[in-house]
Specification:
195 residues, mainly beta, 2 domains, disordered N terminus
Length: 195
């Protein structure tokens, strides 16, 4: 059994750390521990790994998670199987899955929490899933859309490229590309800083 581990700085300034059994073929499997990190100590995983006896080994890594505003669900990308899983934090179960193309990587949510944005690095596109209706839309972004970051209150979100030194600026509702920001190097691990 492989173990995945990841963390996300998301809503309300909280830091989440999650651990999960990796499912078959590297997908996101059964969550085994999720810990809201409030600056306190203590292990995020209460039980040792059943094969090694050590807490929380990390053999498979899902790149990014998004936490919904009410903190009920997280969405985690499964790059090796081309899906995004919805994890119910209270029940500790995967309760939904979205086909997200080849090598889904970045995930984030719209301001209103109704749209889930997912970059499909292998398909050169950005997907938007309407979480209420299940409708899926996409826009082509070439080459290799990578990390996704929503800037709350602006109506925009940002997508970096894995292969080109740029960040696309997109409209949250229409998915129209509003512009590009030239950067030096790779746009990896974007974050939002409030001043």
């Amino acid at each position: 059994m492989n173990r995945s581990r990841g963390s996300a700085d998301r809503r309300h300034g909280q830091r989440y750390q999650w651990f999960a059994d990796a499912g078959r073929e590297g997908g996101f499997g059964r969550p085994v521990g999720i810990d809201r990190k409030d600056g306190g100590g203590g292990p995020a995983l209460a039980h040792p790994h059943p094969e090694t006896g050590r807490p929380g080994g990390c053999l498979v890594r899902a790149p990014v998670v998004a936490v919904v505003p009410d903190e009920r669900f997280i969405y985690a990308g499964n790059p090796t199987v081309g899906t995004v899983s919805r994890v119910d934090l209270e029940r500790g179960e995967v309760t939904g899955s979205y086909a997200a193309g080849a090598e889904p990587h970045g995930v984030d949510l719209s301001d209103d929490g109704r749209l889930l944005y997912v970059s499909s690095k292998g398909d050169d596109k950005l997907l938007a899933f309407n979480l209420a209706s299940g409708e899926q839309r996409s826009v082509s972004l070439t080459p290799a859309p990578y990390h996704v970051s929503t800037i709350r209150g602006t109506g925009k979100f940002y997508v970096s490229s894995r292969k080109s030194p740029k960040i696309w600026v997109l409209d949250q509702q229409s998915l129209a590309v509003r512009g590009e920001i030239a950067i030096r190097g790779e746009g990896h691990e974007m974050g939002v800083v409030n001043r």
